[in-house]
Every structure is written in C-alpha cells, then in structure tokens.
Design goal:
The structure holds 2 protein chains of 2 kinds.
Chain A: H1 2-9, H2 13-19, H3 29-42, H4 46-73, H5 76-83, H6 87-96, H7 108-119, H8 122-130
Helix pairs in contact in A: 4-5, 5-6, 7-8
Chain B: E1 8-12, H1 14-22, H2 29-32, E2 33-36, H3 39-46, H4 58-66, H5 85-97, E3 100-102, H6 106-114, E4 119-120, H7 122-131, H8 137-146, H9 153-168
Parallel strand pairs in B: 1-2, 1-3, 3-4
Helix pairs in contact in B: 1-4, 3-5, 7-8, 7-9, 8-9
The chains are: A mainly alpha, B alpha/beta.
C-alpha cells in the first residue's frame, strides 16, 4: 500500500486514470431517486459515493457467500479466502454473528479423559466417565 | 505459599485462540499449558485485512501482549496437505512433540484424534480450568455462556453437566 501510494505520487493524472477501469451500471428511476436523496443528505460527490457503495457491496457479497460456503463445508480456510479475510478475522466475524464454529458429535468426554490423564486430575477423570453425550 | 503448578505442553491452533479470547480464557490457559505456537498460526492470528492494515482485532492485540509467554517451535515438521497452513502445522507439531492440541474446529480436531493425539477444545479447557481450581464454578459457567452461540448446544449441555459433577465434589 505504501509502495502504491509512493508510486501514484510519481505518476501523472493521466497515468493514474489509465490504471483504473470504468464500469457502468443502469439504475431504475426508483434506485436513482434513492441515490440522489442520499447525495443530498450526505453532500458526497456522486462518483465517490457510487465507488464506495460498490466496494462496500462487494465486500458484503463476498462475506455473505463465504458464510454460506462455511455453513455448508465447515472449512474456514476456503471460506476465509472467499471472504477476502485472514482466517482468524473470518472466525472472529463468524463468532460475532453468533455462528457456531464447533459443530458435530461431541468429543468432550474423551477430551476431558485425555486432559485428566495429562494433569493427573482424578476428579476430572471421574467426571469424564460420568458425563455422557445427550441421547447416548 | 503454594508450589507453582506443573504446566502441560500444548500446541496452539488459530481457531482455539479466537474462541478462547471470546470465552475470556486465553490468559488462563497460560496457567495450565506451556504453549508452543506454530509459525503459521502466529501469522494467521496476526494477519491483517488487506486495505485495513492499521486495524488490529482484540484477539490479535492480546496475542501480541502475551507473545513473550508463548514458545516458538524448535523443530521442523511436515504438515499434512489436507489442511491450511496454520491447522496443518499445529497438527504436525502436536504429533511431533506429543503435546495436547488446542483446537476449536471439528475437521482438524477429528483428524488429530484419528492420529491418536490428545486434543482440547475451549469447552473442555473451561471444565479443566474449573477442575484445576483456576476459576470458580460461577466463572466457568459464565465463560461457557460466552461461547454458547458459537458451540453446538449438545456440547454446551455436556460441559454444563461436567461442571455439575465437579461442583458436587466441592
């Protein structure tokens, strides 16, 4: 990013323009009225507001798709790539949204048994024997 | 004055740290575990979003502050290809060191269990913290509540019953 900023500072306006791609969209009267109302309220320049909305919208679309894929596959690496986020940040977003990241059949009793053995914790070992998954 | 508690060797995986932060047990874990952090896991926890590099998530801030209490691996491992870099290195390292794998996602957890590794998720570590007397019954139930939305209901129920059993022995 720093490199880009330095590089842009040495480029002419025409060179910067050539690096950008123009995309056009068609809006209905209703959508256009919505945009104009927002521009009146915010005082933003139309092109700036449209670009910001597009960039933010793409991020939201990527995240929504990533969450859909995560719920289907339970693969945080793949899903975080779709979201365009580092894996830890993606996991944080999931937890913020109240999405479960520890699903499937419980292994709690065997985890407790292993921990009890490692720590020499008899009380935990006994609890591991007595606690049973619901429905078993 | 009580003798210092003997800590058990453990290897950290990214999913555990994020959820341990949410459950407010990340720092408590240092009382119980001598934690080795695979290089790829450290990178995943500290990675910043492209375009928002100045923003640091709170779990990453805590990791940065506790980093001096955590260990870096001294051995080279060959991570399994089935997983991303953090999870793969954590599993391989836990196997190499015969350490407990701290992980909170089912696919990697199941793979590690099939290898015969001891694994621990955030709910089981909350129960362990209670059993070891690091936290109170009330605190352990509150911490379980903090991750209730992010954990299968059956696991939360089972952990609650384990806490009931432990409190019966007080």
């Amino acid at each position: 990013m720093r490199y880009d900023a330095l590089r842009c500072a040495t480029l002419s306006k025409a060179e910067v323009q050539r690096m950008l791609t123009t995309k056009s969209i068609r809006l209905t009267d209703e959508e256009l009225a919505d945009l104009r109302e927002y521009l009146d309220i915010s005082g933003e320049v139309e092109a700036v507001a449209l670009k910001r909305a597009a960039v933010r919208g793409i991020r939201e679309l990527r995240l929504a798709e990533a969450i859909r894929v995560y719920l289907e596959e339970r693969d945080s690496e793949h899903a975080s790539h779709i979201a365009g986020l580092p894996r830890a940040q993606f996991l944080q977003v999931l937890t913020d949204k109240g999405i479960s990241v520890l699903e499937g059949q419980s292994s709690l009793a065997s985890e407790m048994e292993g921990l009890a053995r490692r720590f020499g914790d008899r009380r935990l070992a006994q609890a591991a024997i007595e606690v049973e998954p619901v429905g078993v | 004055m009580t003798a210092p508690r003997a800590r058990v060797l453990a290897v950290l995986e990214t999913s555990f740290w994020v959820l341990a932060y949410r459950a407010e047990i990340a720092a408590n874990c240092l009382d119980l575990f001598d934690i080795v952090v695979p290089n790829a896991v450290a990178q995943e926890i500290q990675a910043r979003q492209p375009g928002a590099t100045s923003r640091e998530y709170p779990y990453a801030t805590l990791f940065r502050h506790l980093h001096h209490r955590l260990r870096t691996p001294e051995v080279q491992v060959s991570p399994p290809a089935a997983f991303g870099p953090g999870k793969a290195e954590a599993i391989a390292l836990a196997a190499e060191l015969n350490a407990v794998l701290l992980i909170n996602e089912r696919p990697g957890l199941q793979y590690a269990r099939n290898l015969g590794l001891d694994v621990a998720t955030v709910p089981s570590v909350i129960v362990l913290l209670r059993s070891q007397g690091v936290i109170s019954d009330r605190a352990s139930r509150r911490k379980l509540g903090l991750i209730a939305l992010n954990t299968a209901a059956a696991i939360i129920d089972e952990a609650s019953r384990a806490l009931d059993l432990l409190s019966g022995g007080d």
